[in-house]
Fold each of these.
Amino acid sequence: MSLAPTPVPPTSPADSDLVRAARGLPVSRTPVWFMRQAGRSLPEYRSLRAGTAMLDACQDPDMVTEITLQPVRRHGVDAAILFSDIVLPLVVAGMDVEIKPGIGPVIGKPVRTVADVEALPALEPEALGFLQTAVRQLVAELGATPLIGFAGAPFTLATYLIEGGPSKEHARTKAFMYAEPEAWSRLLDKLAVSAAIFLRAQVDAGAVAVQLFDSWAGVLSAADYAERVLPHSRAVFDGLGERDVPRIHFGVGTGELLPLIGDAGADVVGVDWRIPLDEATRRVGPHRSLQGNLDPAVLLADRATVDREVRRVVEQGRAARGHIFNLGHGVLPDTDPDVLTHVAELVHELTTR
Ligand code: 1CP
């Protein structure tokens, strides 16, 4: 008869495998969740969202609760991420923002001058009651499964505000950064304050981990990132004060920025698919965990390829202090949801201690 200890399943969100991996503590198995796990890959999401604008859905606590729970029920992932959007704090503050289907966030009056920066409305914490209601409902429903709160990092939000919508090169954003350094710093200060308010509201209502999305930071040189962006992202994390929740810091194309992304105050660095996790561990150092990094496009390939790539990511993730399995960026809308369920099962099977 084997006397090997049976791994004890987590009993509380704050002691879940996700939180433990983020802190570099032993886990019962590698935790897995998927960026954009809620959303268009799920038929139940498409039917619930039909006829409701994205930003209205984000401000309806019952819809937020249901959409956040859908992928947890379906895939058996180890974390929920609040259904919301990085532009929501701007909307709640009263800015003219719309999320256009098939495009993304579009800003009515883009920020192009020093006066535009000064005129940005502030986010009042009291206006986030609906969000805290959603978080409390979720915590009650989720049991031992942790809820991740999130915010957009100042740089990535600034790209939408300055460009007026999604863009590839972010050229206007960079031009503003170089031409108006004081207004740039003031803009990112304001966005950091609002991101911190958004995160505190989620943590105070029961989120047990946070992720800062700096999705587009990879367009910057390390020198510009270090001087003109990192201090503002650090201010967001500092704004959490004594709240003892692990902090995940993610961007795309950040291979050259990985050490800096960690230095902004993260427990976990999110890595895209371009850098293998063993190499990312060398860049980030031994004192932080990693999250990632399966290429979301792999999920559109055949099952043998999916399995091979999942195994590779799991193996390379063993180099890290702690590993949270995820994609290198969000789930693509054409992804077959059954493949996501399979990936979650395979990661668990490969890593159960
Ligand atoms: O109608 C729809 O279904 C709109 C699609 C959609 C969804 C489902 C958008 C518009 N946002 C969201 C939800 C969302 N956005 C989540 C939910 C939680 C989950 O992951 O399941 C999260 C975390 C975000 C964050 C977000 N929004 C980011 C950072 C993450 C990333 O993908 O890099 C960014 C850059 C945005 C802006 C945004 N919102 C929506 C779109 C299509 C975009 C990207 C546009 C662009 O390419 O610039």
Note: Residues 35-40, 54, 81, 83, 85-86, 99, 101, 104-105, 150, 156, 166, 213, 215, 330 surround coproporphyrinogen I (CB under 6 Å).
Amino acid sequence: MAHLFNRNVLLGVSGGIAAYKSAELVRQLLEQGATVRVIMTRGAQEFITPLTLQALSGNPVHTELLDAEAELGMSHIELARWADLLLIAPATADLLARLAGGRADDLLTTVALATAAPLLLAPAMNQQMWRDKATAANVATLRARGCALVGPASGEQACGDIGPGRMEEPAVIAATAASLFETGLLAGKRVVITAGPTREALDPVRFISNHSSGKMGYALARAAADAGARTTLVSGPVTLPAPDHVRVLQVESASQMLEQSLQLLPECDIFIGCAAVADYRPAAVAVQKIKKGPEEISLQLVRNPDIVAAVAASENRPFTVGFAAETQDLLAHARDKMARKGLDMIVANDVSDRSIGFNSDDNAATVLWADGEQVLALAGKAALARQIIELIAGRLVTADKCN
Ligand code: CTP
């Protein structure tokens, strides 16, 4: 099914009677998973109030081009960049003419010029205006520039005429908007990924941790979001920026990572354990900073819970993927780890090779599952992440067919 998960839809509303249907259109777009912001022309505000569309979209409605305060919030250029799609519904005859003429005489037409996002138009006007040669020429110009049109539908019009010119139904417009985006391999799936190191506190100022950069987990999150999945990262402390369209939940210790991961399970179809979880934590955390004392001290450590194994053992478990960092007998140890932890798939890394893994930008891996395996040659972590996501999607299709 087409969807708008992770998509920013900028809805332009121009001044026609069909503007009242924009309220329902916002609802339909949200239902498809889009984030919606609305621009209204002056005319549109005669038919429906900005407040209505603000309340429905959950975002302030943009109306003015030369409003210093509004520009401070989100400038017209930022709006143009923000949009993954500019959808104008209703698009009146006047608006089509202004777009065809390349005018920039209000916020909506200016953003239409300034955006690189695709433009989808839902025309709405009197049937005679739609049939007029001037409108037909404008539509032809816009189509030739790559704009997509949905509708108009035919039927009885608000003015009493019968013919083509009615704005298409909101559900049809939303579905057309969704169909403009390539259906991602993980369309509609919910993915949770653990990433980065964990920190196990010794006292208020010290901890045990490791050198994991989180790069592989973050690359996987980006690849999952790009594939259309609603993606959440449960991240240990790293210095990476949050990838676009990915929710990032910060944690510190293995226990916190476990708790957060388990909480997310009811809304998780695919779980990828990519974090370098500390296997042990100090048996006790000192309340005060530990003072220097004797020449030698020893530290008592206790085992941390295994997060990916706990997920794999849960009721209604998601498709569960783990990583195996090994220095010898890579495939045998990885297969054993997959079985021990009850995983559906494991990504095996040879960490004896210093050119890949932990802090590097590159990685190579062998991906194993119950009845198959695939070698992924050395590549950037982003490229490798995309291949891993493709393999996961492939296994899901196979599993669906078997069920
Ligand atoms: N993992 C986890 N929780 C832990 C330890 C590991 O979820 N407490 C996950 C990692 O995210 C990874 C996989 O388990 O997906 C394998 O981690 P690895 O360190 O290779 O394996 P270990 O279980 O620690 O086994 P060993 O140290 O014996 O190799």
Note: The domain at 8-179 is CATH 3.40.50.1950 (Rossmann fold).
Amino acid sequence: MTDRGRYIALEGWEGSGKTTQAALLAEHLGAVLSREPGATPLGEHLREVLLGADYWPSPRAEALLFAADRAQHIAEVVAAHLAQGRDVVTDRSYGSTLAYQGYGRGLPLDELRALIEYASGRPDPPPTGHRLPEVILPDVVVLLDVPLAHPRTRSRQKNKGAKRKDDIDGIQMTLLGAEESHTALQGDKFEDADSSFRERVWHGFRDLCAAEPERWVLVDGTGRRPGVAERVREAVAGKLSGDA
Ligand code: TYD
């Protein structure tokens, strides 16, 4: 029976370089690259609802929709790969729910934690040959730390292109579920949020990182990409070997 794969999440504010670093880390580990929201066909629809301008879910509805996306992601992508011994790197995970819906929108953290646990439950029946825990949470969460006012350099085209190929530092990566979205040419609701919301989210991420040091690790996200990538790799290796 193979050992299960490792599940690693990159978290951070928009413009932290998280998406690029997730791709570089996945490449380095030979891992499956995934994301929340939107890594599955159902998740693609939920992503449009959540980030597009057509619907404005209430905070609770928003939390439930992100939870639905996560449940589908785990059932359809994460559990199966981990069970086969493949590592999975995800661009965002449960930390974003706590930071955005909890610290940002003001929903109670304990209620969100219960929702996250429910959404992250191992699928039933579990994948064959599995050695998966009952609740599938990332083994390591990397919080990419950039100052709140860090200039956003990424392209507005980030959501565009069915099964898009991202050319990152010469590496061609296929991003799961990155299908065309009407949010392609505009900021999404979260990017356009007011500065107090952004500040609460930013502080929320730092609190979450400090509160769960056995799982979370803060990595300096400033400076050139290769240097950040090196720090991310070291931090993940340290956490996985249990000595960081
Ligand atoms: P995305 O376009 O993937 O942007 P980013 O490059 O910033 O990751 O947008 C995802 C947005 O969804 C982002 O603003 C954070 C938000 N989000 C939540 O509010 N809660 C969640 O649980 C998740 C996974 C994401």
Note: The first helix runs from residue 18 to 29.
